[in-house]
Every structure is written in structure tokens, then in C-alpha cells.
Design a protein that fits this description.
It is a single chain. The chain is built from 8 helices and 11 strands. By secondary structure, it is of the alpha/beta class. A 6-stranded mixed sheet has the order 2-3-1-4-11-5, sandwiched between helices. The longest helix is centred in the last third of the chain and has 19 residues. The two termini are 37 Å apart.
Length: 237
């Protein structure tokens, strides 16, 4: 197991008064890895065990004295920020679409974690029916709200089978006719005999902040937004 680092702490900048420490929520997995170069451009070095999936620690110090990171499931990032357990976070637009928390402000598209929320079905039935004639359809997904809104906009009632994973099994085992899932390369779909038939939304990761924290601590939270914006500009420059 990777050992945690005793990190040297950088000095707070002038716009960060004493007691201005914040918590940033980051998702496990691929997006976490994509976040690290962005943090590095900001001069932020997390504890080395942040990327160690075997680490039992969930809150990690960084080289910045005013910033700690919590590592949680991707869907939980928005919940932590919405309820004020973390002041800022990074999560996919899919999560924001699914939960639509009014307590969250998403000021920056970070352009990382590119993928899409799509409809998929078995290759042999794809295109066999006119979806515009359906009155209802059974859909397996971890995005019940996105799926229901998508089909409701077409006048179709979606009977949602809410799964946390292995969506690709659902059509083959008769659990649902279609799935709505996050797709990056489509290789998992193809390996299970499914084809992507419709893209509901393109997805990238966003910087999110708690609206109450932004209102009560505008200098501190605003400074962190500015740091992310500057690092993003350097990356794109």
C-alpha cells in the first residue's frame, strides 16, 4: 500500500484569511486521475495515497494549508457539495443533470472526463421499432431522472429499473428493453452485443461550488474559482 506523504505546506495567499480552510470533493476513478494535472498546474500536491484505491483513508491533506480533499463516489460528490460537507468539488455533468441540486453552482467546464449519456439496445433489435410510436418502455439505468425526462419529452412513459451497475446485462436477461448509461468508448456495449442508438447528452466534468459558501465566503471561494480558471486557461493556452 502506498504510504501517505508528510506534505510541505505552501503559505496561504493574501486573500485567504486564517480559518479559511475548505474541503474539495473529488470522485474516485478516471476523473480523479484527470484532475491531478489540473491541480498540479495550481501548485496543489495531494497526499500520495489519494490515488491508491487500497487506501482506507477518505480525507486527504494537500500541500496547500487551506485545502483538504475527500474522495467519494462520483454520484456523491454533488451531494457532499449541495449539503455543505464540501465547499467545492469536481463532478461530471451527468451527475448534475441527474440530481439538479439548486444548492450547487457550476461556474467552470473543466473539459476533462469526456463521455456521453446514451441509449443502447441489443444490436439485433436496434432500429426495428419506431420509437416514436411507443407509449411506454422499460429502461434499465442508474440515471432514473434523466431517463424519465428524456422519454417524457417524447410523450413516452419510462418504466425505470434502477441499477447501480452491469446495465449491459439487462436487455439480454429480459430485465429491460433499453439501457441509459454513461458511454466513453462503447467497447463495453459492443462486448455485450449492444449498440448505442441515441446520445442524450455530451458530458464533461465541472467545477462545482456550494452556493451558500459562495455567498458567505465570497473572497475565499471566489479565489479558488479564479485559480481553477487560470489553470484551465494555461492548459488550453
Amino acid at each position: 500500500m502506498t504510504q501517505a506523504l508528510d506534505l510541505p505546506r505552501t503559505q496561504p495567499v493574501a486573500d485567504e484569511p486564517a480559518g479559511s480552510g475548505i474541503v474539495m470533493a473529488l470522485p474516485k476513478g478516471r476523473i480523479l486521475a484527470d484532475c491531478l494535472p489540473l491541480l498540479a498546474r495550481m501548485g496543489i500536491a495531494p497526499s500520495s495515497d489519494l490515488v491508491d484505491e487500497g487506501s482506507r483513508r477518505l480525507r486527504f491533506p494537500t500541500s496547500h494549508p487551506a485545502l483538504d480533499i475527500v474522495r467519494v463516489r462520483s454520484f456523491d460528490v454533488a451531494t457532499f457539495v449541495a449539503f455543505g460537507a464540501a465547499e467545492i468539488g469536481i463532478c461530471g455533468a451527468d451527475v448534475l443533470m441527474e440530481f439538479d441540486y439548486p444548492e450547487i453552482y457550476a461556474p467552470l467546464d473543466l473539459g476533462i472526463g469526456r463521455c456521453r449519456v446514451s441509449v443502447a439496445e441489443p444490436s439485433e433489435t436496434a432500429g426495428a421499432d419506431d420509437a416514436g410510436r411507443w407509449s411506454r418502455v422499460r429502461v434499465a439505468t442508474k440515471y432514473p431522472n434523466i431517463a424519465r425526462r428524456h422519454y417524457a419529452a417524447r410523450g413516452v412513459h419510462a418504466d425505470v429499473v434502477h441499477l447501480s451497475g452491469a446495465m449491459e446485462l439487462a436487455p439480454r436477461l429480459g430485465l429491460a428493453r433499453l439501457i441509459v448509461d454513461l458511454v466513453q468508448t462503447g467497447s463495453t456495449l459492443r462486448a455485450n452485443g449492444l449498440v448505442e442508438t441515441e446520445v442524450i447528452a455530451a458530458v464533461t466534468s465541472r467545477l462545482i461550488v456550494n452556493r451558500a459558501a459562495l455567498k458567505t465566503r465570497p473572497e475565499v471561494i471566489g479565489a479558488w474559482i479564479a485559480r481553477f480558471r487560470q489553470a484551465l486557461g494555461e492548459a488550453n493556452g
